[in-house]
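Backbone-to-sequence.
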C-alpha cells in the first residue's frame, strides 16, 4: 500500500471532488461540528493534510453457490482503463455489487447496485476524534482498538482504520430496468456524476458487466 494525500490521489485517479466525497460520509458519522473541529472546515487544507493508504485491490472471500461448505478467495482489482488501438477501451478492473440500505432507491437488484471501483483506500482517523465521542450524533460511535506501548507499559486507545472504496454507480438504461425481450440483458449506464465513497463492507462481491 502506498501513502498519498487526498490532493495527489485526486489527480492520479481523476476524482475531481475527492475532498467533498471524503468529507460527506465522515459528516454523516461525526456530524458537521465534530468533523470541522477534527479535520477543519477549509476544503483546500483538508485535501492537503489528510493522507490515505492506496490499495491495488482487495481479497474477497465467499462461499460458492454450489459448494456452500467451501470458501474461495477472489481478487477485486481496481485498475485504470487503458486504450487499445485495435479494440478501443479495455477495462481491467473487476466490477462490483455494492449493497445499499436506503429504502428509497429504485435502481436496485435486491438492494444492490452494479458499480465501477475507482480506488480502494484505507484511512485512520486522528486520535483527536476520541475527545469528541460524547458529541457524536445519536447512534454513532468510533470503532477503537487498544495498543500497548513497551516503554510506558500502558494500553493506549486508538481509532480503528477504515477501509473504503470510491465507486461509480450505475442506473437502469431504460425506465423500469426490464430485461431486453430479445437478448435477455438488463442494461445499465455509468453515473459518473454520482461518484461516491462506500465502506468496503458494503461490497457484496464481483458482478459481470459486458460492455456494449
Amino acid at each position: 500500500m502506498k501513502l498519498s494525500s487526498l490532493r495527489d490521489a485526486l489527480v492520479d485517479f481523476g476524482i475531481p471532488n475527492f475532498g467533498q466525497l471524503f468529507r460527506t460520509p465522515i459528516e454523516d458519522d461525526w456530524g458537521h461540528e465534530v468533523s470541522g473541529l477534527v479535520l477543519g472546515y477549509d476544503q483546500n487544507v483538508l485535501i492537503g493534510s489528510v493522507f490515505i493508504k492506496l490499495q491495488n485491490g482487495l481479497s474477497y472471500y465467499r462461499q460458492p453457490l454450489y459448494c456452500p461448505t467451501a470458501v474461495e478467495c477472489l481478487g477485486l482489482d481496481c485498475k485504470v482503463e487503458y486504450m487499445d488501438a485495435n479494440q478501443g477501451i479495455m477495462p481491467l478492473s473487476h466490477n462490483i455489487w455494492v449493497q445499499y440500505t436506503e429504502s428509497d432507491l429504485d435502481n436496485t437488484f435486491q438492494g444492490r447496485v452494479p458499480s465501477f471501483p475507482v480506488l480502494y483506500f484505507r484511512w485512520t482517523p486522528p486520535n483527536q476524534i476520541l475527545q469528541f465521542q460524547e458529541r457524536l450524533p445519536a447512534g454513532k460511535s468510533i470503532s477503537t482498538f487498544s495498543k500497548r506501548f513497551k516503554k510506558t507499559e500502558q494500553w493506549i486507545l486508538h481509532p480503528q482504520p477504515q477501509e473504503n472504496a470510491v465507486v461509480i454507480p450505475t442506473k437502469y438504461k431504460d425506465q423500469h430496468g426490464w430485461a431486453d425481450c430479445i437478448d435477455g440483458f438488463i442494461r445499465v449506464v455509468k453515473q459518473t456524476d454520482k461518484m461516491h465513497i462506500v465502506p468496503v463492507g458494503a461490497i457484496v462481491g464481483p458482478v459481470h458487466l459486458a460492455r456494449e
